[in-house]
Amino acid sequence: MKRFVVVFVCAVFAVGVLAIPSVAGAATTIKFGHIAPPFHGQSKGIDAFAEYVKEKTKGEIEIKTFPFGQLGSETSLAEQVQAGTLEIASVTCAVLQNSAPQVAVVDLPFVFPDRKTAYAVLDDPEVQAKIFGYLPAKGFIGIGWTENEFRDITNVKREIRKPDDLKGLKIRVMNSPIYIDTFKQLGASPTDLPFPEIYSALQNGTIDAQENPLLTSILIKATEITKFVTKTGHILTECIIIVTPDYWKKLTPEQQNIFREAAKVCIKTNREVNVELEKKLPQSGISVEEYCAKNNVKVINLTPEERGAFKTAMQQVWTKYREKIGPELFDFFQAKVKSHSGK
């Protein structure tokens, strides 16, 4: 009898607890996943995002950040956001274009003449509204950017100064159609090996080259093997901060605005830390330039004419992706690049 009473009372208590409505303004904790290492500008920016949200919501929303792929690969992160099992993530346009082909416009090779123009275009409210506008139908809410860096080419064979110098090189690229098409057009043999396998693949001769920002190449020790670096800056690796729609709808308009403001804090921090890392590498404390000189890494800085030759070689790729992306968006983006150039 006593056992029955205890069970009955516990059951009533449990039902009562479940019946209590949630309190408006009660603190909640959400997860933000990404693949950047903790010391990288992208990771520091995302941490700044979390701190800003916590401060501005007075602790009502706490964001736990999970760097370095702790919650899965970028493809997995995107799928988790689509499924509503992860509230927020930062995923490269290279991966997101598999769901929303239009975001490939950001990855057009040699589309940005310089960093200043790139940042002006990406920070343009009309550009963000246009690109992010394609995401809700695919299960994402885009609210801002994070970034890796401009991508360069390192290889074990020779100096690369013109498109023909890439012919025949086996090069590891990101698993994205536009990256593969870019290097096929240049006469190389692209392969999409997983990122952690780059070093061993270079070491055993599976690949001759890889394309990553020089900073990243140093940090993964690829430059221990690839002694030729060409600063092509062929693509700026941009990531979109994506929120799952169900969670976004739960936020008040004021909270949504806080998230968007946090995204601006994030990219500002991201860019500033990347600049500092170029000046002072983790552990060694020396600059990227000093590292290359000390380790006999030959760095080729392309002249405007040499870089122009690479851009000219990309016209077939641009033509293909104008149709894939959509002529209206393609032309809109090109016009923005032109309008922000030289300012």
Task: Quickly describe the structure.
The chain has 343 residues and is α/β, with parallel strands linked by helices.
CATH A-level architecture of the largest domain: 3-Layer(aba) Sandwich
Helices and strands, in N-to-C order? HEHEHEHHHEEEHEHEHEEHHHEHHH
Strand content is: 15-25%
Q: Write down the domain tally.
A: 2
Q: What is the strand arrangement across the widest sheet?
A: 7-6-8-5-9-11
Question: Share of helix among residues?
Answer: 40-55%
CATH class of the largest domain: Alpha Beta
- Could you name the CATH topology of the largest domain? D-Maltodextrin-Binding Protein, domain 2
Distance between the termini: 84 Å
Spans where pLDDT lies below 50 across 5 or more residues: 1-24
Number of helices: 15
Query: Considering the protein shown, what is the CATH homologous superfamily of the largest domain?
Result: Bacterial extracellular solute-binding protein, family 7
What gyration radius follows from the Cα positions, in whole Å? Answer: 23 Å
Rough outline: globular
Task: Tell me about the largest β-sheet.
Answer: 6 strands, mixed
